[in-house]
Amino acid sequence: MRSLEASQYLIRAIDAFDRDLVIITPDFRIVAANRHAAEKWEHRLIGQICHQAIYDRDAPCDDCPAVEALRTGRPVMYSLTVNLVSGIRKGSCFPILSGSGDRIDALAMVDYDISRLTSLEQRLRRTNMFLRNILRSAVDGIIAADMSGKIIIFNEAAAEVTGYSVAEALDALYIWQIYPGEGKAAARRVMRDLRGDDYGGSGKLNRYHVDIRGKNGQRIPISLYAALIYEEGHEVASIGFFHDLRDRLRMKTELERAQVQLMQAEKMASLGKLAAGVAHQLNNPLGSITLFARLMLEEHDLPEAARDDLERILSDAERCRDTVKELLEFARQTRQQIQPQDINQALERTLFLLQNQTLFHNIRIVKVFAPDLPPVRADIQQLNHLFMNLILNAAQAMQGSGQLTIRTLFEVEAKTAVIEVGDTGPGIPPEVLPHIFEPFFTTKEEGQGTGLGLSMVYSIVENHGGRTEVDSSPESGTTFRVRLPVGGPPSKGEDSDEPSLVSCAGG
Ligand SMILES: Nc1ncnc2c1ncn2[C@@H]1O[C@H](COP(=O)(O)OP(=O)(O)O)[C@@H](O)[C@H]1O
Ligand SMILES: [Mg+2]
Known about the structure:
By secondary structure, the chain is of the alpha+beta class. It has 13 helices and 17 strands. The strands form 4 sheets. The chain has a 5-stranded antiparallel β-sheet. Strands 7-6-10-9-8 form a 5-stranded antiparallel β-sheet. A 5-stranded mixed β-sheet has the order 12-14-15-17-16, with helices on one face. The protein has helices at residues 4-16, 35-40, 50-53, 65-72, 114-137, 156-162, 166-172, 184-195, 246-297, 304-330, 343-354, 380-397, 453-463; strands spanning 21-24, 30-33, 76-83, 87-97, 104-111, 141-146, 151-154, 204-213, 219-231, 234-244, 339-341, 362-368, 376-378, 401-411, 416-422, 467-473, 477-485. Residues 389, 392-393, 449, 453 line the site of magnesium ion.
Protein backbone atom coordinates (compact mmCIF):
# COMPACT_ATOMS: atom_id res chain seq x y z
CA MET A 1 0.00 0.00 0.00
CA ARG A 2 1.13 3.54 -0.79
CA SER A 3 1.52 5.86 2.13
CA LEU A 4 -0.83 8.79 2.52
CA GLU A 5 2.02 11.17 1.88
CA ALA A 6 2.88 9.38 -1.38
CA SER A 7 -0.74 9.45 -2.47
CA GLN A 8 -0.97 13.16 -1.76
CA TYR A 9 2.16 13.81 -3.75
CA LEU A 10 0.73 11.83 -6.64
CA ILE A 11 -2.44 13.91 -6.61
CA ARG A 12 -0.39 17.11 -6.49
CA ALA A 13 1.74 15.86 -9.38
CA ILE A 14 -1.34 15.10 -11.42
CA ASP A 15 -2.63 18.61 -10.69
CA ALA A 16 0.70 20.12 -11.64
CA PHE A 17 0.59 18.17 -14.92
CA ASP A 18 0.08 20.71 -17.69
CA ARG A 19 -2.23 18.56 -19.82
CA ASP A 20 -5.88 17.67 -19.48
CA LEU A 21 -6.48 14.53 -17.45
CA VAL A 22 -10.10 13.48 -17.13
CA ILE A 23 -11.41 10.23 -15.56
CA ILE A 24 -14.73 8.79 -16.67
CA THR A 25 -16.70 5.74 -15.60
CA PRO A 26 -17.62 3.05 -18.15
CA ASP A 27 -20.97 4.86 -18.57
CA PHE A 28 -19.12 8.04 -19.59
CA ARG A 29 -19.74 10.01 -16.43
CA ILE A 30 -16.88 12.35 -15.56
CA VAL A 31 -15.75 11.56 -12.03
CA ALA A 32 -12.46 13.43 -11.74
CA ALA A 33 -10.35 15.96 -13.58
CA ASN A 34 -6.95 17.39 -12.82
CA ARG A 35 -6.58 21.09 -12.22
CA HIS A 36 -5.54 21.82 -15.82
CA ALA A 37 -8.74 20.31 -17.22
CA ALA A 38 -11.00 21.59 -14.42
CA GLU A 39 -9.84 25.17 -14.89
CA LYS A 40 -10.27 24.91 -18.61
CA TRP A 41 -13.86 23.66 -18.28
CA GLU A 42 -14.58 25.97 -15.33
CA HIS A 43 -15.32 23.06 -13.00
CA ARG A 44 -18.53 22.23 -14.87
CA LEU A 45 -17.37 18.74 -15.67
CA ILE A 46 -17.67 16.65 -12.56
CA GLY A 47 -20.76 14.48 -12.55
CA GLN A 48 -21.59 15.24 -16.17
CA ILE A 49 -21.79 12.78 -19.05
CA CYS A 50 -18.73 13.31 -21.18
CA HIS A 51 -20.30 13.51 -24.63
CA GLN A 52 -23.13 15.70 -23.35
CA ALA A 53 -20.97 18.11 -21.38
CA ILE A 54 -18.10 18.46 -23.78
CA TYR A 55 -19.49 17.64 -27.19
CA ASP A 56 -23.18 18.37 -26.68
CA ARG A 57 -24.17 14.97 -28.06
CA ASP A 58 -26.71 12.37 -26.90
CA ALA A 59 -24.52 9.40 -27.67
CA PRO A 60 -20.76 8.84 -27.51
CA CYS A 61 -18.83 10.24 -30.44
CA ASP A 62 -18.40 7.94 -33.47
CA ASP A 63 -14.67 7.59 -32.94
CA CYS A 64 -14.76 7.76 -29.14
CA PRO A 65 -11.53 6.23 -27.78
CA ALA A 66 -13.29 5.25 -24.55
CA VAL A 67 -15.69 2.98 -26.47
CA GLU A 68 -12.68 1.35 -28.14
CA ALA A 69 -10.78 1.02 -24.83
CA LEU A 70 -13.87 -0.49 -23.15
CA ARG A 71 -14.19 -2.98 -26.00
CA THR A 72 -10.56 -4.08 -26.12
CA GLY A 73 -9.49 -3.42 -22.53
CA ARG A 74 -6.32 -1.82 -23.95
CA PRO A 75 -5.02 1.75 -24.15
CA VAL A 76 -6.06 3.66 -27.28
CA MET A 77 -4.29 6.55 -28.93
CA TYR A 78 -6.75 8.96 -30.41
CA SER A 79 -6.96 11.87 -32.73
CA LEU A 80 -10.29 13.66 -32.86
CA THR A 81 -11.40 16.52 -35.00
CA VAL A 82 -13.28 18.55 -32.41
CA ASN A 83 -14.23 21.70 -34.23
CA LEU A 84 -12.71 24.24 -36.51
CA VAL A 85 -11.40 26.38 -33.66
CA SER A 86 -9.88 23.74 -31.42
CA GLY A 87 -8.65 21.80 -34.42
CA ILE A 88 -7.43 18.28 -33.89
CA ARG A 89 -7.34 16.88 -30.37
CA LYS A 90 -4.83 14.12 -29.79
CA GLY A 91 -4.32 12.01 -26.73
CA SER A 92 -4.62 8.58 -25.23
CA CYS A 93 -7.26 6.78 -23.27
CA PHE A 94 -6.33 3.94 -20.95
CA PRO A 95 -8.46 1.69 -18.81
CA ILE A 96 -8.17 1.66 -15.00
CA LEU A 97 -8.70 -1.94 -13.99
CA SER A 98 -10.31 -3.28 -10.83
CA GLY A 99 -8.11 -4.82 -8.12
CA SER A 100 -8.64 -8.31 -9.55
CA GLY A 101 -7.91 -6.98 -13.03
CA ASP A 102 -10.98 -8.49 -14.70
CA ARG A 103 -13.12 -5.36 -14.84
CA ILE A 104 -12.73 -1.82 -16.09
CA ASP A 105 -13.57 0.53 -13.25
CA ALA A 106 -12.84 3.74 -15.09
CA LEU A 107 -11.03 5.27 -18.01
CA ALA A 108 -8.33 7.94 -17.90
CA MET A 109 -8.21 10.37 -20.82
CA VAL A 110 -5.01 12.35 -21.26
CA ASP A 111 -5.08 15.14 -23.78
CA TYR A 112 -1.92 16.40 -25.42
CA ASP A 113 -1.63 20.11 -25.55
CA ILE A 114 -2.39 20.32 -29.20
CA SER A 115 -2.00 24.05 -29.52
CA ARG A 116 1.66 23.78 -28.53
CA LEU A 117 2.30 20.81 -30.76
CA THR A 118 0.58 22.50 -33.65
CA SER A 119 2.67 25.61 -33.34
CA LEU A 120 5.81 23.46 -33.27
CA GLU A 121 4.59 21.64 -36.32
CA GLN A 122 3.83 24.90 -38.05
CA ARG A 123 7.22 26.28 -37.20
CA LEU A 124 8.84 23.14 -38.60
CA ARG A 125 6.74 23.37 -41.72
CA ARG A 126 7.65 27.03 -42.14
CA THR A 127 11.35 26.27 -41.73
CA ASN A 128 11.10 23.47 -44.28
CA MET A 129 9.30 25.73 -46.69
CA PHE A 130 11.93 28.39 -46.19
CA LEU A 131 14.72 25.89 -46.90
CA ARG A 132 12.88 24.63 -49.96
CA ASN A 133 12.53 28.20 -51.22
CA ILE A 134 16.22 28.82 -50.71
CA LEU A 135 17.01 25.69 -52.71
CA ARG A 136 14.54 26.65 -55.40
CA SER A 137 15.66 30.22 -55.82
CA ALA A 138 19.40 29.51 -55.56
CA VAL A 139 21.31 30.57 -58.67
CA ASP A 140 23.73 27.71 -58.18
CA GLY A 141 22.82 24.13 -58.87
CA ILE A 142 22.58 22.19 -55.62
CA ILE A 143 22.79 18.40 -55.49
CA ALA A 144 23.17 16.21 -52.42
CA ALA A 145 23.56 12.45 -52.36
CA ASP A 146 23.57 9.93 -49.55
CA MET A 147 26.40 7.47 -49.10
CA SER A 148 24.84 5.02 -51.56
CA GLY A 149 24.96 7.72 -54.22
CA LYS A 150 21.21 8.23 -54.24
CA ILE A 151 20.29 11.84 -54.90
CA ILE A 152 18.42 13.39 -52.01
CA ILE A 153 18.51 17.08 -52.87
CA PHE A 154 18.23 18.38 -56.43
CA ASN A 155 17.18 21.96 -56.99
CA GLU A 156 15.70 23.79 -59.96
CA ALA A 157 19.04 25.30 -61.05
CA ALA A 158 20.56 21.80 -61.12
CA ALA A 159 17.63 20.71 -63.26
CA GLU A 160 18.21 23.56 -65.65
CA VAL A 161 21.90 22.79 -66.12
CA THR A 162 21.60 19.00 -66.38
CA GLY A 163 18.28 18.66 -68.18
CA TYR A 164 16.84 16.22 -65.61
CA SER A 165 13.63 17.29 -63.92
CA VAL A 166 13.70 17.67 -60.13
CA ALA A 167 11.20 14.84 -59.75
CA GLU A 168 13.03 12.34 -61.95
CA ALA A 169 16.35 13.14 -60.25
CA LEU A 170 14.90 12.62 -56.78
CA ASP A 171 13.08 9.50 -57.93
CA ALA A 172 15.71 7.45 -59.61
CA LEU A 173 18.99 9.24 -60.23
CA TYR A 174 22.32 8.23 -58.72
CA ILE A 175 25.15 10.70 -58.43
CA TRP A 176 27.52 8.77 -60.73
CA GLN A 177 24.97 8.99 -63.53
CA ILE A 178 25.69 12.69 -63.87
CA TYR A 179 29.39 12.07 -64.52
CA PRO A 180 30.67 11.39 -68.04
CA GLY A 181 31.61 7.96 -69.32
CA GLU A 182 30.75 5.08 -67.07
CA GLY A 183 30.54 7.68 -64.30
CA LYS A 184 31.50 5.63 -61.28
CA ALA A 185 35.23 6.22 -61.72
CA ALA A 186 34.71 9.96 -62.05
CA ALA A 187 32.41 10.02 -59.01
CA ARG A 188 35.00 8.09 -56.99
CA ARG A 189 37.70 10.56 -58.04
CA VAL A 190 35.57 13.47 -56.85
CA MET A 191 34.91 11.69 -53.52
CA ARG A 192 38.63 10.99 -53.12
CA ASP A 193 39.48 14.64 -53.72
CA LEU A 194 36.67 15.63 -51.37
CA ARG A 195 38.17 13.54 -48.57
CA GLY A 196 41.69 14.67 -49.40
CA ASP A 197 43.42 17.88 -48.44
CA ASP A 198 44.27 19.35 -51.81
CA TYR A 199 41.15 21.27 -52.74
CA GLY A 200 40.19 23.46 -49.81
CA GLY A 201 40.75 21.09 -46.88
CA SER A 202 39.57 17.64 -45.91
CA GLY A 203 35.85 17.14 -46.47
CA LYS A 204 35.67 20.12 -48.81
CA LEU A 205 36.11 21.03 -52.44
CA ASN A 206 36.61 24.62 -53.42
CA ARG A 207 36.22 25.83 -56.99
CA TYR A 208 36.85 22.37 -58.32
CA HIS A 209 36.58 22.14 -62.11
CA VAL A 210 35.02 18.98 -63.42
CA ASP A 211 32.85 17.88 -66.34
CA ILE A 212 29.39 16.49 -65.71
CA ARG A 213 27.04 14.84 -68.17
CA GLY A 214 23.67 16.28 -69.03
CA LYS A 215 20.56 14.17 -69.59
CA ASN A 216 21.13 13.91 -73.31
CA GLY A 217 24.79 13.09 -72.99
CA GLN A 218 26.36 16.52 -73.46
CA ARG A 219 29.47 17.30 -71.41
CA ILE A 220 29.07 20.31 -69.17
CA PRO A 221 32.10 21.90 -67.52
CA ILE A 222 31.23 23.11 -64.02
CA SER A 223 32.87 24.82 -61.10
CA LEU A 224 32.01 22.88 -57.96
CA TYR A 225 31.97 23.69 -54.24
CA ALA A 226 31.27 20.53 -52.27
CA ALA A 227 31.30 19.30 -48.71
CA LEU A 228 30.84 16.08 -46.81
CA ILE A 229 28.04 16.00 -44.27
CA TYR A 230 28.76 14.20 -40.99
CA GLU A 231 26.45 12.88 -38.31
CA GLU A 232 28.11 11.87 -35.05
CA GLY A 233 31.45 11.65 -36.80
CA HIS A 234 30.24 9.51 -39.68
CA GLU A 235 29.89 10.56 -43.32
CA VAL A 236 26.22 10.48 -44.18
CA ALA A 237 25.97 12.53 -47.34
CA SER A 238 27.75 14.89 -49.66
CA ILE A 239 26.45 18.16 -51.03
CA GLY A 240 27.64 20.14 -54.03
CA PHE A 241 26.98 23.69 -55.19
CA PHE A 242 27.95 24.30 -58.78
CA HIS A 243 27.59 26.58 -61.75
CA ASP A 244 27.76 26.00 -65.46
CA LEU A 245 31.05 27.21 -66.95
CA ARG A 246 29.98 26.97 -70.59
CA ASP A 247 29.05 30.64 -70.97
CA ARG A 248 32.18 31.74 -69.18
CA LEU A 249 34.42 29.53 -71.33
CA ARG A 250 32.67 30.74 -74.47
CA MET A 251 33.25 34.33 -73.38
CA LYS A 252 36.88 33.55 -72.65
CA THR A 253 37.52 32.19 -76.16
CA GLU A 254 35.71 35.16 -77.66
CA LEU A 255 37.81 37.50 -75.58
CA GLU A 256 40.98 35.71 -76.65
CA ARG A 257 39.94 35.99 -80.28
CA ALA A 258 39.22 39.70 -79.85
CA GLN A 259 42.63 40.08 -78.23
CA VAL A 260 44.35 38.40 -81.16
CA GLN A 261 42.47 40.72 -83.51
CA LEU A 262 43.46 43.72 -81.49
CA MET A 263 47.09 42.67 -81.52
CA GLN A 264 46.90 42.17 -85.28
CA ALA A 265 45.42 45.64 -85.69
CA GLU A 266 48.10 47.14 -83.51
CA LYS A 267 50.83 45.32 -85.35
CA MET A 268 49.48 46.59 -88.66
CA ALA A 269 49.31 50.13 -87.29
CA SER A 270 52.92 50.16 -86.17
CA LEU A 271 54.03 48.49 -89.39
CA GLY A 272 52.16 51.23 -91.23
CA LYS A 273 54.07 53.92 -89.38
CA LEU A 274 57.33 52.14 -89.98
CA ALA A 275 56.56 51.74 -93.67
CA ALA A 276 55.72 55.40 -94.04
CA GLY A 277 58.93 56.40 -92.29
CA VAL A 278 61.09 54.11 -94.42
CA ALA A 279 59.37 55.22 -97.62
CA HIS A 280 60.02 58.88 -96.88
CA GLN A 281 63.66 58.20 -96.01
CA LEU A 282 64.18 56.33 -99.27
CA ASN A 283 62.33 58.72 -101.52
CA ASN A 284 64.95 61.49 -101.67
CA PRO A 285 68.07 59.34 -102.23
CA LEU A 286 66.12 57.33 -104.84
CA GLY A 287 65.24 60.57 -106.59
CA SER A 288 68.92 61.58 -106.64
CA ILE A 289 70.04 58.17 -107.93
CA THR A 290 67.52 58.30 -110.75
CA LEU A 291 68.34 61.90 -111.60
CA PHE A 292 72.12 61.44 -111.66
CA ALA A 293 71.94 58.17 -113.59
CA ARG A 294 69.82 59.92 -116.22
CA LEU A 295 72.28 62.84 -116.41
CA MET A 296 75.23 60.49 -116.86
CA LEU A 297 73.40 58.53 -119.56
CA GLU A 298 73.09 61.75 -121.54
CA GLU A 299 76.88 62.00 -121.84
CA HIS A 300 77.92 61.08 -125.38
CA ASP A 301 81.35 59.62 -124.82
CA LEU A 302 80.16 57.01 -122.33
CA PRO A 303 81.62 53.51 -122.87
CA GLU A 304 79.00 50.88 -123.78
CA ALA A 305 79.63 48.82 -120.61
CA ALA A 306 79.14 51.87 -118.38
CA ARG A 307 75.93 52.70 -120.27
CA ASP A 308 74.59 49.17 -119.56
CA ASP A 309 75.48 49.50 -115.91
CA LEU A 310 73.77 52.87 -115.66
CA GLU A 311 70.65 51.53 -117.29
CA ARG A 312 70.63 48.69 -114.79
CA ILE A 313 71.00 51.21 -111.99
CA LEU A 314 68.14 53.23 -113.42
CA SER A 315 65.75 50.29 -113.80
CA ASP A 316 66.53 48.95 -110.33
CA ALA A 317 66.05 52.41 -108.85
CA GLU A 318 62.69 52.57 -110.57
CA ARG A 319 61.71 49.24 -109.09
CA CYS A 320 62.68 50.60 -105.69
CA ARG A 321 60.56 53.66 -106.36
CA ASP A 322 57.54 51.47 -107.21
CA THR A 323 57.94 49.62 -103.94
CA VAL A 324 58.20 52.89 -102.08
CA LYS A 325 55.02 54.04 -103.81
CA GLU A 326 53.19 50.93 -102.69
CA LEU A 327 54.50 51.38 -99.18
CA LEU A 328 53.18 54.92 -99.12
CA GLU A 329 49.87 53.65 -100.34
CA PHE A 330 49.82 51.04 -97.63
CA ALA A 331 50.36 53.79 -95.13
CA ARG A 332 47.81 55.87 -97.02
CA GLN A 333 49.40 59.20 -97.36
CA THR A 334 46.86 60.11 -100.02
CA ARG A 335 43.37 61.54 -99.98
CA GLN A 336 40.34 59.39 -99.54
CA GLN A 337 37.16 60.11 -101.47
CA ILE A 338 34.17 58.48 -99.89
CA GLN A 339 31.15 58.23 -102.15
CA PRO A 340 28.30 55.76 -102.68
CA GLN A 341 29.61 52.99 -104.93
CA ASP A 342 28.03 50.10 -106.78
CA ILE A 343 30.10 47.14 -105.58
CA ASN A 344 28.89 44.73 -108.29
CA GLN A 345 29.88 47.21 -110.96
CA ALA A 346 33.30 47.79 -109.38
CA LEU A 347 33.90 44.03 -109.38
CA GLU A 348 32.82 43.77 -113.02
CA ARG A 349 35.27 46.50 -113.96
CA THR A 350 38.18 44.85 -112.17
CA LEU A 351 37.34 41.50 -113.76
CA PHE A 352 37.11 43.12 -117.18
CA LEU A 353 40.64 44.49 -116.77
CA LEU A 354 42.07 41.20 -115.57
CA GLN A 355 40.33 38.45 -117.49
CA ASN A 356 42.16 39.12 -120.76
CA GLN A 357 45.52 38.50 -119.16
CA THR A 358 47.12 35.13 -119.93
CA LEU A 359 46.98 34.11 -116.25
CA PHE A 360 43.18 34.03 -116.50
CA HIS A 361 42.82 32.11 -119.77
CA ASN A 362 42.19 28.75 -118.14
CA ILE A 363 40.23 30.04 -115.17
CA ARG A 364 36.48 29.64 -115.05
CA ILE A 365 34.94 32.75 -113.55
CA VAL A 366 31.67 32.32 -111.68
CA LYS A 367 29.85 35.46 -110.62
CA VAL A 368 27.02 35.35 -108.10
CA PHE A 369 26.05 38.95 -107.56
CA ALA A 370 23.33 40.02 -105.16
CA PRO A 371 20.82 42.08 -107.17
CA ASP A 372 19.64 43.97 -104.09
CA LEU A 373 23.08 45.17 -102.98
CA PRO A 374 22.67 48.83 -102.02
CA PRO A 375 25.42 51.35 -102.81
CA VAL A 376 28.29 51.24 -100.32
CA ARG A 377 30.02 54.41 -99.22
CA ALA A 378 33.64 53.89 -100.14
CA ASP A 379 36.67 55.19 -102.02
CA ILE A 380 36.44 53.70 -105.51
CA GLN A 381 40.19 53.67 -106.11
CA GLN A 382 40.73 51.72 -102.91
CA LEU A 383 37.91 49.32 -103.78
CA ASN A 384 39.48 48.60 -107.17
CA HIS A 385 42.80 48.01 -105.52
CA LEU A 386 41.22 45.72 -102.97
CA PHE A 387 39.41 43.59 -105.54
CA MET A 388 42.39 43.51 -107.86
CA ASN A 389 44.62 42.12 -105.12
CA LEU A 390 42.19 39.43 -104.01
CA ILE A 391 41.44 38.27 -107.53
CA LEU A 392 45.11 38.29 -108.57
CA ASN A 393 46.08 36.27 -105.51
CA ALA A 394 43.36 33.74 -106.27
CA ALA A 395 44.51 33.36 -109.87
CA GLN A 396 48.13 33.04 -108.80
CA ALA A 397 47.23 30.44 -106.18
CA MET A 398 45.47 28.34 -108.84
CA GLN A 399 48.50 28.79 -111.13
CA GLY A 400 46.22 29.80 -113.94
CA SER A 401 43.67 27.00 -113.86
CA GLY A 402 40.66 26.37 -111.69
CA GLN A 403 37.51 28.17 -110.70
CA LEU A 404 37.27 31.70 -109.43
CA THR A 405 34.01 32.42 -107.63
CA ILE A 406 33.04 35.99 -106.92
CA ARG A 407 29.98 36.45 -104.81
CA THR A 408 28.23 39.42 -103.27
CA LEU A 409 25.63 39.32 -100.54
CA PHE A 410 23.67 41.84 -98.57
CA GLU A 411 23.15 41.25 -94.86
CA VAL A 412 20.05 43.31 -94.26
CA GLU A 413 20.11 43.45 -90.48
CA ALA A 414 23.80 44.19 -90.17
CA LYS A 415 23.54 46.63 -93.13
CA THR A 416 26.66 45.04 -94.49
CA ALA A 417 27.83 44.23 -97.99
CA VAL A 418 29.75 40.97 -98.19
CA ILE A 419 32.20 40.29 -101.01
CA GLU A 420 33.66 36.83 -101.37
CA VAL A 421 36.54 35.88 -103.64
CA GLY A 422 37.03 32.13 -103.70
CA ASP A 423 39.49 29.94 -105.57
CA THR A 424 40.10 26.22 -105.98
CA GLY A 425 43.79 26.58 -105.25
CA PRO A 426 45.90 24.63 -102.73
CA GLY A 427 44.75 26.64 -99.70
CA ILE A 428 46.93 28.47 -97.18
CA PRO A 429 49.01 26.29 -94.85
CA PRO A 430 48.20 26.87 -91.15
CA GLU A 431 51.72 28.07 -90.40
CA VAL A 432 51.45 30.69 -93.16
CA LEU A 433 47.95 31.89 -92.28
CA PRO A 434 48.87 34.16 -89.30
CA HIS A 435 51.29 36.14 -91.49
CA ILE A 436 49.46 36.74 -94.76
CA PHE A 437 48.36 40.26 -93.84
CA GLU A 438 51.85 41.39 -92.86
CA PRO A 439 53.52 43.79 -95.27
CA PHE A 440 56.30 42.12 -97.28
CA PHE A 441 55.17 38.67 -96.31
CA THR A 442 55.16 36.51 -99.42
CA THR A 443 55.60 32.86 -100.26
CA LYS A 444 56.10 33.69 -103.91
CA GLU A 445 59.37 33.68 -105.77
CA GLU A 446 61.33 36.88 -106.20
CA GLY A 447 59.76 39.15 -108.76
CA GLN A 448 56.42 37.32 -108.43
CA GLY A 449 55.09 38.98 -105.32
CA THR A 450 55.88 41.96 -103.18
CA GLY A 451 53.98 40.72 -100.13
CA LEU A 452 52.14 44.02 -99.97
CA GLY A 453 48.82 42.97 -101.54
CA LEU A 454 47.00 41.59 -98.54
CA SER A 455 48.38 44.17 -96.13
CA MET A 456 46.77 46.75 -98.38
CA VAL A 457 43.56 44.76 -98.50
CA TYR A 458 43.58 44.69 -94.73
CA SER A 459 44.09 48.40 -94.30
CA ILE A 460 41.61 49.37 -97.00
CA VAL A 461 38.92 47.27 -95.33
CA GLU A 462 39.78 48.63 -91.88
CA ASN A 463 39.67 52.09 -93.30
CA HIS A 464 36.10 51.51 -94.44
CA GLY A 465 35.04 50.21 -91.03
CA GLY A 466 34.87 46.64 -92.34
CA ARG A 467 36.40 43.27 -91.64
CA THR A 468 38.44 40.77 -93.64
CA GLU A 469 38.00 37.04 -93.07
CA VAL A 470 39.57 34.06 -94.70
CA ASP A 471 38.50 30.41 -94.97
CA SER A 472 41.06 28.05 -96.33
CA SER A 473 41.61 24.34 -96.66
CA PRO A 474 43.65 22.13 -99.01
CA GLU A 475 40.43 20.47 -100.25
CA SER A 476 38.24 23.45 -100.95
CA GLY A 477 40.79 26.18 -101.65
CA THR A 478 40.69 29.66 -100.23
CA THR A 479 37.91 32.17 -99.86
CA PHE A 480 38.52 35.73 -98.75
CA ARG A 481 35.46 37.44 -97.36
CA VAL A 482 35.26 41.19 -96.99
CA ARG A 483 32.45 42.79 -95.00
CA LEU A 484 31.84 46.45 -95.63
CA PRO A 485 29.27 48.50 -93.75
CA VAL A 486 26.96 50.09 -96.29
CA GLY A 487 27.16 53.37 -94.40
CA GLY A 488 30.91 53.60 -95.03
CA PRO A 489 33.69 54.41 -92.56
CA PRO A 490 32.30 55.09 -89.08
CA SER A 491 33.47 58.57 -88.16
CA LYS A 492 34.96 60.28 -91.18
CA GLY A 493 32.76 62.36 -93.42
CA GLU A 494 32.51 62.39 -97.21
CA ASP A 495 35.62 63.49 -99.08
CA SER A 496 37.60 63.20 -95.90
CA ASP A 497 41.15 64.29 -96.57
CA GLU A 498 42.48 63.36 -93.21
CA PRO A 499 45.36 60.99 -93.89
CA SER A 500 45.55 57.85 -91.84
CA LEU A 501 48.78 55.99 -91.37
CA VAL A 502 47.24 52.55 -91.21
CA SER A 503 45.16 52.68 -94.29
CA CYS A 504 45.99 53.11 -97.91
CA ALA A 505 44.66 54.37 -101.17
CA GLY A 506 44.42 52.37 -104.34
CA GLY A 507 46.56 53.22 -107.35
N1 LIG B 1 44.15 32.88 -102.62
C1 LIG B 1 45.25 32.47 -101.99
N2 LIG B 1 45.55 31.16 -101.89
C2 LIG B 1 46.66 30.76 -101.25
N3 LIG B 1 47.53 31.59 -100.65
C3 LIG B 1 47.31 32.90 -100.71
C4 LIG B 1 46.15 33.42 -101.36
N4 LIG B 1 46.18 34.77 -101.23
C5 LIG B 1 47.30 35.07 -100.53
N5 LIG B 1 47.98 33.95 -100.23
C6 LIG B 1 49.23 33.87 -99.46
O1 LIG B 1 49.44 35.12 -98.80
C7 LIG B 1 50.70 35.64 -99.15
C8 LIG B 1 50.63 37.14 -99.11
O2 LIG B 1 49.81 37.63 -100.15
P1 LIG B 1 50.02 39.09 -100.65
O3 LIG B 1 50.05 39.99 -99.46
O4 LIG B 1 49.01 39.39 -101.68
O5 LIG B 1 51.45 39.07 -101.21
P2 LIG B 1 51.96 38.40 -102.56
O6 LIG B 1 50.79 38.06 -103.37
O7 LIG B 1 52.80 39.49 -103.18
O8 LIG B 1 52.76 37.23 -102.13
C9 LIG B 1 50.99 35.02 -100.50
O9 LIG B 1 52.37 34.99 -100.77
C10 LIG B 1 50.42 33.64 -100.36
O10 LIG B 1 51.29 32.79 -99.66
MG1 LIG C 1 49.29 39.43 -103.82
